[in-house]
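Subject: complex prediction, re-run

Hi both,

The earlier run crashed halfway through, so I resubmitted it with identical inputs.
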Amino acid sequence: MTGATARAPLLELRDLAVRFTGPDGVARAVDGIDLTVAEGETVGLVGESGCGKSVTTLAILRLVEPPGHIAHGSSVRLEGRDLLALGPKEIRAVRGNHVALVFQDPLSALNPVLRIGAQIAEAIRAHESVTRSTARWRAVEMLAAVGIPDAERRAAAYPHQLSGGMRQRVVLAMALACRPKLLLADEPTTALDVTIQAEILELLDALQRKLGMAVLLVTHNLGIVAERTRRVYVMYAGQIVEEASTERLFAQPAHPYTEGLLAAIPRLEERRARLQAIPGQVPPATAWPAGCRFHPRCPHAWEKCAAEEPPLLDAGARHKARCWLVEEPMRRKK
Amino acid sequence: MNGGGRPLVKVTDLVTHFTRRTGFLGARRETVQAVNGVSFDIAARETLGLVGESGCGKTTLGRTILRLVDRTSGAVRFDGEDVFALDAAALRRMRRRMQIVFQDPDGSLDPRQSIGRAVREGIEVHRLARGAEADRRVEALLAEVGLPAGSAARYPHEFSGGQRQRAAIARALAVEPEFLVCDEPVSALDVSVQAQVLNLFADLQARRGLSYLFISHDLAVIRHIAPRVAVMYLGRIVEHGPSDRIYARPLHPYTQALLTAVPVPDPGKGRRRIVLAGDPPSPVNPPPGCPFHPRCQHPAKDDRCRTARPELRELGAGHFAACHLAGR
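This time it finished cleanly. Structure:
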């Protein structure tokens, strides 16, 4: 949670691209992502369905399955080490050990026929040479650390015997058992009720402080981004369209897509007569629009936007936006 | 509990319990107390928001009102008529007047049926129009919900999630209902599309004079769509009243916790968060006394909360809460 951007990045993505070859042609699901996470930092990756945020997360650990593949020229570095150049055994050692992954659905991460304590112990033993009983003991300790009451007894439970919130705690316990330096959390609370979500996010915060770990928090929920991250990347149509400190992004968004998202959320504190919807739909990944990919839905678009794809332009204060308005603010329509 | 005017929908002491099989090979039976004594009114042209977390009974409540599931006791009156006293023919006529929109539009759209056919079905079943007149109505409905011209001949898979939800709404509207139960209709949609569909619900209400029971787990969505809100916990309404009041000054400790739990898209805005401990109890075995007492963080919680169930009390103009300690 420290603003440690001056240090060498823990995670560095350069020009990361993931393509899926299918009957409708090639889908450029992730299309040239640059992203960094510093040690101990919490970074948000926000976007709507189909923007490529989950595929980005999977690509970091090389978990993209065919027909998807990471394109040549992509780079994923963890503490300077090129993860894309590692052999299968080496990348397995990185997964879970240095970088852990938590998904929206805890059941996808848990083995239904194995007791939860045993699963965590197994995860520990996969990465560290410890005795069976030490692993057992550490598993119970982790279950207690994630707030599972009566952890010693609960370690003997099977996943189906637990509630959704408890399962996600178990998944966190398993993910964090080897004290990873980076946690990739992909919509970790989306399937949970709001009161349980609050408990899990508080827990994640506390564990992060305790373990000094960095978190890449992937979510569609702008409220979670606002409360839990210091820096944020916004994704649209396979690209990063804006990056800024969280405070700045919400105070002065530079990309019309980000602005649109912020205007579209219903608020708790006031009732607006009408929500400002973003017209149209996200285009399919096989047919991103030419020029700026957002231009067909953008209220400010002019000829240039349909013709030329904007790069990420510098909007000051370590704030970047993939929008020609950064260079030509006079074009902004009132 | 009245939003003013003669109620179109009047729910009185409604109880819905159902048994389900559980245990090894379903050897045991247990009774789920999904709805446990709920009362409210909805006036014509009014929206009542119903908010609660999973398993609180809000979906079962919505379905019981439409008599899609059987009630255990209590009454539902629609336009003065007892919904549970109707014979088959009368119920069919009543069904035309009250429709439901689900979270998943695929639940009301058949993948092998064109969107036009899906919308036309209700018009024909209820003999509202035939032939070219039915075609004209289908086109008008699809346009009204914002689907592009030519949608009628296309199939559900050709549309995005937001468009399919629009089609499901058109299908519900085809029989010209007065009342819609909207069960999490925007929960599966992305925020940009969710805003489009919420605006559509508002437009349709203004144009057609519809009444909504709008069910959602999302407090901000309910705030936006409903001037009056009921908060449900473990089969009971624990607080209800005007949204402006409840969101500004919630009286029930559960509502207070819910509201502080919602992450707010406003960085740096420090808020005191009431973090509840543990999961909601099972509706199979609700706790005695106040259903919320095991998780309640109220400092003055006492024996009464554990033994006596609090009734809804009016603590402000039209603002009710079921808590022994509220307003004290």
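Chain B touches chain A at residues 53-54, 160, 162-163, 190-196, 198-199, 202, 217-221, 223-225, 243-244, 247, 257-268, 273, 275-280 (CB under 8 Å).

- K.
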